[in-house]
Specification:
Mean pLDDT: 84
Radius of gyration: 13 Å
Structural class: alpha/beta
Largest sheet: 4 strands, mixed
Number of helices: 2
Low-confidence stretches: none
Number of strands: 6
Strand order of the largest sheet: 1-2-4-3
Shape: globular
Strand content: 25-35%
Order of helices and strands: EHEEEHEE
Helix content: 10-25%
Distance between the termini: 19 Å
């Protein structure tokens, strides 16, 4: 599971709820994605990505279905 948060404004690096989820050992989450208005960067275990790239990373599971999966292959 990869948690995703969408932020706007200059406080994109403040994400208290996401930090709490990542610190919870029961979830065992190794990384997260924050979509924001800034450039790509990685800080600790959080990948910050411009919002306009969100569409590229979403892949429809089945044609006509409303279930989408995160496809991170564009980052390689």
């Amino acid at each position: 599971m990869i948690p995703i948060e969408v932020k706007s404004g200059k406080d994109y690096s403040r994400h208290r709820a996401l930090d709490h989820v990542m610190k919870n050992e029961l979830y065992d989450i190794k990384q997260a994605i924050v979509f924001c208005n800034e450039n790509i960067q990685v800080k600790d275990q959080i990948f910050y990505c411009p919002v306009y790239l969100a569409g590229m990373m979403m892949k429809q599971a089945v044609e006509g279905d409303f279930i989408y999966r995160l496809d991170l292959s564009v980052l390689q």
